[in-house]
Design goal:
single chain, 299 residues, 7 helices, 8 strands, DUF881 domain-containing protein, DUF881
Length: 299
Amino acid sequence: MTAPGSPEPGRSYAPDFLTELFRNPLEPGYAAATDRRRVAGPVRGWRRTTVRTVSLITLVALGFLLAVAYRQTLAEEPSRSQARAGLIDQIKQRQAETDELSRHAEGLRDEVSRQRDAALTGSDAARLRDLEAATGLARVRGDGLVVRLADAPSKADAVTGAGGTNLGRVLDTDLQGVANALWSAGAEAISINGQRLSATSTIRAAGSAILVDFRPVAGPYEVSAIGPDQMERRFRDSAVARLLRSVATSHGMSFNVRTADDLTLPAASEPQLRYARPSPSAPTPSGSGVSATPSGGGR
C-alpha cells in the first residue's frame, strides 16, 4: 500500500524546463558544431595560410608589373617628346614654306595684272579689275567692319583634362554664321584671319582646328568685311549676332564688333575649277527629236 502523497510506482517526471535550461545553456547542435570545428581546426588553418600566401604573391606580382609598366612609360617619354617636337618643327617648316610660296604667288599675280593692264584698253582693264574684286581674286581696300571672336577660358584641368566640355569655344559653324550674316548685311569682301573668302571657299573643322580653304586658322578669330555703312547695323540685328551675344553672356566667349576704316583684304588663291563636258560618244536620247548629225537645214 502506498503512502499518501508519494509518487505512484512506474511513473517518471521530466525535469523542470527552467532547471534544465540553466543546467545546459548551450543547444546540442551548437556543441556538436564546436566539436567538429575543433577536430577540423588544423585543416582550416592550413587553408587560411594558403589563401593568404596566394593573395600576397598576387599583390607582389601586380606591383611588379605596374612598376615595370611605369619604368617603360618613363623610358619611352623622351622618344615621344622628341617625335612630337619633330612633327611640330615639320609643321612650322611647311607652314613657312607655304607662306613664302603664297607671297611669291602674290607677286606673280601682281606682275600678271600689270602686264595685262598694259595689254588691255582702259575700259576692259577696269571691268576685269571689278570682276576680280567681286570674285575675291584681287586685293581690295575700303571701310568696313571687324568681328572678333575668341574662346572662353578653359575650365578643364591642365593635368587631367577633367572639367567637362567648354561651351564657350568658337566653332567652325560660328565663323560660317558670321560670314553668311555679313554677306546678307551687304558685305562686298570678307576675310578670316587674312584668308579671303570666295564663292568656292570652305569653313570646316578638323578635330579641334578650324580650316579656311584647307588652311588652319587659330584664335582669336577676326572676320573682316568691306561694305556699306548700313552693314554694321544689319549685322548687329541679325540672328547670328544675337546668338553669339547670348553665348558670350552665358559661357564667357569673347564677341566684339567694331567699325574699321581703310581695311585691306588680300586676294584669294586661284580656284581649281572643273567643267563638265558632254561625251562625244554619248548616245542620243530616243524620241527627243535631236539628230546627232546636222540636218543641213538653215542654208
